[in-house]
Amino acid sequence: MDVTNVDEEVQKVLDRLSGKQSKTWATKKVKQLTCNLVLAAADKASCQLNDKQAAAAAAGQHLVHKCNYKPVQPEWHVPWHMVQVISSHLGWVRSLAIEPDNKWFTLGSVNCMIKIWDLASGTLKLTLTSHISPVHRLAVSACHPYLFSCDEDKQVKYWDLETNKVVRQYHGHLSGVYTLALHPVLDLLVTGSRDSVVRVWDICTKQQIHVLASHKSTISLVQCQEADPQVILASMNSTVRLWDLTAGKSMTTLTHHKKSVHTLALHPTQFGFASASSDNVKQWWCPKGEFVQNFDQGNSSIINSLV
């Protein structure tokens, strides 16, 4: 019923009452009119709400529900197959790093050795034996023929691959060094340790620039990128921290994981990264660390590496 016709209906009821109609009929008619009024008001309010939602959507303020999110499907490629097995190490291989020109790669093992292999032929080119405890992480410089390594004996070594000797060592950690990363633009080295501290070093002078000490557990992995957050850290206390390298302060702490975060991986083209623990793999957007989605791994196994 149109709201403008209410007066006419009421007048009809009054006319019927003047003709000595029953009170029961009058009561029923008034209830019907009241019900129609309520329905008409509800329809009008619904139309106004739809108009507001349409205006918000046109202005780019409409919320996109998660059910409408459709991830990009990967393109099909020829199935992978194994080409060669390299089994020269006598213990677990903890780290791998590939030279930027894809000519060789290096492996670090718990038998305290670093071995360099030819990528095309798979032959052993060199063995470095300066470490006295298991090697946890390796990094190859993109600017110079230099290699960086760290081990459980608190040592961080800087190798010159032209002379195959240790050029510098970085001292400061109070426990085993589990991870390291090179800044892609600046001559900076970032190392993380079991002492829950991350240290930022000047590669050339060996000076310690920052001590990032907000974590409460072992640092499992560190990643560096050109734009803020320039340092991203994963920790065994189930958190991921984003750091402002200029100020030396934490920007954001991500606490979505329920178990220890063992690894991180930066996206090669998009401004984001992924973190992995035994609960699931999570995708994030930089620079604020906005959560995107979970990747269901189908089991609760520990993920030690993510690429």
Share of helix, binned: 10-25%
User: What does the main sheet amount to?
Assistant: 4 strands, antiparallel
- The number of strands is 20
CA-atom Rg in angstroms: 33 Å
Can you offer a commentary on this structure?
The strands form 5 sheets. Strands 1-2-3-4 form a 4-stranded antiparallel β-sheet, with no helix packed on it. The chain has helices at 6-18, 23-58, and strands spanning 93-98, 104-109, 114-118, 124-128, 135-140, 146-151, 156-160, 165-169, 177-182, 188-193, 198-202, 208-212, 219-224, 231-235, 240-244, 249-254, 261-266, 272-277, 281-285, 290-295. Helix 1 (6-18) runs antiparallel to helix 2 (23-58). The longest helix has 36 residues, at 23-58. The two termini are 64 Å apart. Strand 10 (188-193) and strand 11 (198-202) form a beta hairpin. The protein has 2 helices and 20 strands. It has 307 residues and is of the alpha+beta class. 16% of the residues lie in helices and 36% in strands. Mean pLDDT is 82; it is low at 56-67.
Short description:
This protein is α+β, with helices and mostly antiparallel strands and 307 residues long. It is built from two helices and 20 strands.
Tags for this model:
single chain, 307 residues, alpha+beta, four-stranded antiparallel β-sheet, 36% strand, elongated
What is the topology?
Blueprint: H1 6-18, H2 23-58, E1 93-98, E2 104-109, E3 114-118, E4 124-128, E5 135-140, E6 146-151, E7 156-160, E8 165-169, E9 177-182, E10 188-193, E11 198-202, E12 208-212, E13 219-224, E14 231-235, E15 240-244, E16 249-254, E17 261-266, E18 272-277, E19 281-285, E20 290-295
Antiparallel strand pairs: 1-2, 2-3, 3-4, 5-6, 6-7, 7-8, 9-10, 10-11, 11-12, 13-14, 14-15, 15-16, 17-18, 18-19, 19-20
Helix pairs in contact: 1-2
